[in-house]
Design a protein that fits this description.
The chain has about 375 residues and is mainly β. The chain is built from 3 helices and 29 strands. The strands form 5 sheets. Strands 3, 4, 5, 6, 7, 8, 9, 10, 11, 12 and 20 form an 11-stranded mixed β-sheet that branches. Strands 13-19-15-16-25-23-22-24-21 form a 9-stranded mixed β-sheet, with no helix packed on it.
Length: about 375
């Protein structure tokens, strides 16, 4: 067992001496499989070495990547949150210093969905690797000191699939606005509608780049459904190692009613709304364990704390009062493609049943 022991040494002429020796027993590395992509773009299974952290518990860190002689160079690795070895399940909580640095062909590392960021050692990856992270942890990884070179080179990012035309966003780090996306703030209007105001390029500009400043809730609009966007952490204003704040900075005006969700947060029922299917729905009274995930924004209407007259669903209108998701009678529309139900699920063809659907970014009544 680990510890300090006295050892008696006997030599020529009955010489004896006692010395104190400290023993450290290290657990042997274990091997687990990970998903990889080779240089020909083919999916495969690779393997990494993991090592327990501490003498007890189920936490492990990745210490190195294996490469078989007949294996093509690996260009991407997907790190799992959990792994199994010897019939026991472990939680991956870290990546050791230099773990992947020898992999000169590696271009992309995909980190898992976890409650807390992995602890990543210095020089864990080659310098030109792009680090793909969950949206809820984009700020944690971008500002992690050991990942400073990647952050400074615009190589810490998250990928979002927008299921609907509108979606909310916030982060504790500045983020570049992707192409094809418009950015709005939301103002209080009346008991059943809110006004969305588009931010101009000048308002978003920072050193020639359109960015969303840290700690601001905004509304994104994209041109279609199920569209994928890359959100890249921007190092223009913030330094690596900066402390992540959960405050609402209100950089786009005190009238903006969108509150950033920097850490997963439970919201009380009064005054808060969550965006769903392009409308804001009142948050109901729920258990404190029910939280809005980080990376989103919630709508807060302070007037609701003084009156109960607000609707349960707030429709979005533009500055002229026109609903942004107009409802029209389009029973005779001939187009078969591009139909969605109100949950954002794409339909195979124009629906035959009566109801309200979404077509060409508009609510459509089928009679």
């Amino acid at each position: 067992a680990p510890g300090q022991y006295s050892i008696t040494i006997t030599g020529v002429g009955n010489y004896t001496s006692t010395t104190l020796v400290a023993y450290t027993i290290e657990s042997p590395d274990m091997i687990i499989g990970v998903d990889v992509t080779d240089k020909n773009g083919r999916q495969a299974e690779g393997s990494v070495n993991i090592r327990p952290i501490g003498e007890e518990g189920n936490d492990v860190e990745i210490v190195s990547m294996n490469h078989a002689p007949d294996q093509l160079p690996t260009t991407s690795v997907t790190i799992p949150a959990l792994c199994t070895s010897g019939g026991k399940t472990y939680t991956i909580t870290g990546i050791a210093e230099g773990a992947f640095v020898h992999m000169s062909d590696l271009k992309d590392i995909y980190l898992p969905e976890t409650d807390e960021p992995l602890i990543i050692g210095e020089n864990a990856f080659p310098e030109d690797v792009t680090i793909h992270v969950p949206i809820a942890l984009l700020d944690d990884y971008a500002l992690m000191p050991s990942l400073a070179p990647y952050y400074q080179n615009g190589k810490v990012m998250t990928t979002v699939k927008a299921a609907n035309r509108f979606w909310t966003f916030s982060s504790g780090v500045d983020v570049a606005v992707p192409n094809g996306v418009s950015v709005y703030v939301v103002h209080e209007r009346n008991d059943n509608t809110v006004t969305i105001i588009e931010l101009t390029d000048e308002e978003l500009n920072e050193a020639g780049q359109r960015i969303i400043k840290a700690n601001n809730g905004v509304l994104f609009e994209c041109t279609g459904y199920d569209t994928t966007f890359d959100l890249i952490a921007s190092p223009i204003r913030m330094e690596s190692g900066s402390t992540i704040s959960t405050e609402d900075n209100k950089d786009y005006g005190m009238e903006n009613c969108l509150v950033p969700v920097i850490k997963a947060t439970h919201y009380e029922a009064d005054g808060y709304f969550l965006l769903k299917n392009n409308e804001f729905y009142r948050i109901k009274a729920e258990s404190e364990n029910i939280k809005v995930p980080a990376g989103k924004a919630v709508l807060y209407l302070p007037g609701l704390t003084l009156t109960r007259s607000f609707a349960d669903a707030m429709e979005m209108v533009d500055q002229y009062g026109t609903p942004v998701m107009q409802v029209k009678d389009n029973s005779d529309a001939d187009e078969e493609d591009g139909w969605y139900d109100l949950n954002g699920r794409k339909l195979e063809r124009k629906p035959a049943g009566k109801g309200i659907y979404i077509h060409n970014n508009m609510k459509v009544i089928i009679n």
